[in-house]
Design brief:
By secondary structure, the chain is mainly beta. It has one helix and 43 strands.
């Protein structure tokens, strides 16, 4: 049963933790989850309501909570508990009963368990761990199917902990990178596919040239970070980059999940060139690839190979890492010369030169589609104008003749900056939350603004060296949650507000964390 934190004075080293804002409750809603340490004690898994209704322990008295992940339906949480010796064990706790069920055996010296990754349907859990004692200290891939302990689904290959296992959208299979046992840390990486029950494990990438290796670099996703989309949307094929034919020349390949039907869908344009990014369409059996060298750089091709269509001009200096499909799969956005936003249909039709970043040659970063509504947002600005770099936030509608709207008017041309990775679209695509330092010195504060530039609200007004760290939107768009603190006095809080920046509530107060505690990154319902 979930335990209200207000009653755990002794168990949490004397810290009195109570819900804030709305007054607390013995059975609050669980909309936000995070790991919390107080007075230097072991971390505990904590949850509460988005409006500060109260906090409860969720770990069933299993201390040391560290890596954790919410199930897709937000009904369960998987978490790794680290004991006093630094050894790991994974648990799953259902919010309905609050019982922490072990997924891995009791830890032995040196046991490491990686981040949990739920299957898209929420029925299974995958993770990388070194649960098998072997002289090479090889990491394995494990799957928990909802009962008993997890089972190993990889073989004797070393599963790469730097590359998370990739669930197929239908939740029946996983793809992962693996090195031949004994060749880590620098051995060649191959791509493997295995059933969620461990059946049919196949090295689908086939033979590589001497010194060759597989990678799956992809262009920008949320916050400018790469998204690794190995699987086609229908779970029929996987894609990867590899030098299979000529050493040092990387091509784009796809293959069926059973290892048959291997095809090179986009070849490098010549010696000393590469295909160096790709991304699957979110709705159709096709993908785009970006290659260096002569010829059109951005190509779209069928999943199983066939005629590749060039969709960018040979005269356009395409910025490969800022290229992304629209959520509905009907458009591709990319950046030319590092400064200009272009979009195009996947068949190459209806090209649009949407915007040139303000200023002469001002670079832009983090190009990102709204979840709905056909708008794009990006950060643009000049580096080294101030310390830190100077950036402003813009959004533009994907339509002929559209002009970008400035979303951060409080940031001037000569001082202040938007944090280039610190902004998020609301789920309905109508608003953006971002953090910015309005002047050359002072705190970073939180702002909310409409996607058209209207309705700007400054949510926080922190003193001195105060800071805001983005957390994100609730999935229903009802609240925005963030961390904030002050470096000078060591305070730390988790707070939330509604989509207009009003109705600010405190979820976790600094009195709980100070002076020797800490809080890990929250997860939001």
């Amino acid at each position: 049963m979930r335990t209200p934190i207000r009653s755990l004075v002794i168990g949490l080293v004397g810290a009195l933790l109570v819900g804030c804002g709305a007054g607390g409750s013995s059975n609050p809603p669980i909309d936000v989850v995070f790991a919390l340490s107080t007075a230097g004690g072991a971390a505990r898994l904590v949850g509460g309501g988005l409006r500060g209704e109260g906090l409860v322990l969720l770990d069933d008295d299993v201390t040391g909570a560290t890596r954790y992940e919410w199930s897709p339906d937000r009904a369960r949480i998987a978490f790794v508990a680290e004991d006093a010796a630094g050894d790991d064990r994974m648990y799953v706790v259902a919010l309905a009963d609050g019982i922490a069920v072990p997924v891995t055996p009791p830890p032995t010296p040196g046991t490491y368990v990686g981040y949990p990754l739920w299957s898209p349907d929420g029925t299974k859990l995958a993770f990388v761990a070194n649960l098998v004692d072997d002289p090479l200290d090889t990491d394995e891939l494990w799957v928990w199917n909802g009962a008993g302990l997890a089972v190993q689904v990889s073989g004797d290959e070393h599963v790469m902990t730097t590359a998370r296992p990739f669930w197929a959208p239908d939740s029946t299979k996983l793809a992962y990178g693996g090195q031949v046992a004994g060749t880590q840390p620098n051995g060649a990486v191959s791509l493997w596919v295995v059933g969620a029950d461990g059946a049919g494990r196949t090295k689908v990438s086939g033979a590589l040239v001497a010194g060759g290796s597989v990678s799956w670099n992809s262009p920008n996703g949320a916050d400018g970070a790469g998204i690794y989309e190995v699987w086609a949307h229908d779970s029929q094929r996987v894609a990867f980059l590899a030098d299979k034919d000529v050493d040092g020349v990387v091509d784009l390949w796809t293959v069926k999940a059973d290892g048959t039907g291997l095809v090179k869908v986009l070849a490098a344009s010549g010696p000393n060139t590469d295909v160096y990014a790709f991304q699957w369409s979110p709705t159709q059996p096709q993908l785009f690839g970006v290659r260096s060298g002569s010829g059109a750089q951005l190509w779209v091709m069928p999943a199983a190979g066939g005629a590749a269509v060039p969709v960018s001009s040979t005269s356009e200096a395409l910025t490969a890492w800022i290229t992304t499909w629209s959520p509905d799969g009907t458009r591709i956005a990319y950046v030319v010369n590092g400064t200009d936003v272009h979009t195009v249909a996947p068949d190459g039709s209806a090209p649009r030169a949407l915007a040139i970043a303000p200023g002469d040659g001002v670079p832009l970063f983090g190009l990102q589609w709204a979840p709905v509504g056909g708008r794009l947002a990006y950060v643009a600005g000049l580096e080294d104008v101030i310390d830190p770099d100077h950036f402003r936030l813009f959004a533009i509608l994907d339509a002929p003749g559209a002009t970008p709207a400035l979303l951060s008017p409080q940031v001037s041309d000569t001082d202040g900056n938007v944090v280039d990775s610190g902004w998020h679209w609301s789920p309905d695509g109508t608003r953006i939350a971002y953090r910015a330092r309005p002047g050359a010195t002072g705190a970073h504060d939180l702002f909310l603004v409409g996607a058209d530039g209207n309705g700007l609200e400054q949510v926080t007004a922190l003193p001195g060296d105060g800071w805001v760290s983005d957390i994100g939107w609730a999935t229903d768009g009802s609240r925005y949650v963030w961390e904030e603190g002050d470096t000078d006095d060591g305070t730390f809080r988790i707070r939330s507000c509604d989509p207009t920046g009003m109705s600010v509530r405190t979820i976790l107060d600094d009195d709980v964390v100070s002076p020797a505690g800490w809080v890990d990154w929250p997860l939001i319902r």
